[in-house]
Amino acid sequence: MKEPIKKKKPGQAGSDDTSEFLRQDRIEIRVNHHEKKRIKQLAMEKEFETVA
């Protein structure tokens, strides 16, 4: 497991992210067509720029 890297300041990536640590880990999941469509719909409703 990687050691956490502390950010210089929260939100430095130009977002509302208030985490004090850099996110270095990635999680991948598999979804079916209907789940993907619903995730995209929710992202649009919440005004996210991407589904990621």
Describe the structure.
The chain is an all-alpha fold. Helix content is 25%, strand content 0%. The protein has one helix and no strands. The longest helix has 13 residues, at 33-45. The two termini are 23 Å apart.
Outline of the structure:
The chain is mostly helical and 52 residues long.
List the helices and strands and how they pair.
Blueprint: H1 33-45
Which key features would you list for this structure?
flat; mainly alpha; 1 helix; 0% strand; 52 residues
Individual helix count: 1
| H-E string | H
Helix content: 25-40%
* Total strand segments: 0
Oligomer: single chain
Which structural class fits the helix and strand makeup?
mainly alpha
Low-confidence sequence ranges: none
| End-to-end CA span | 23 Å
- Amount of beta strand: under 5%
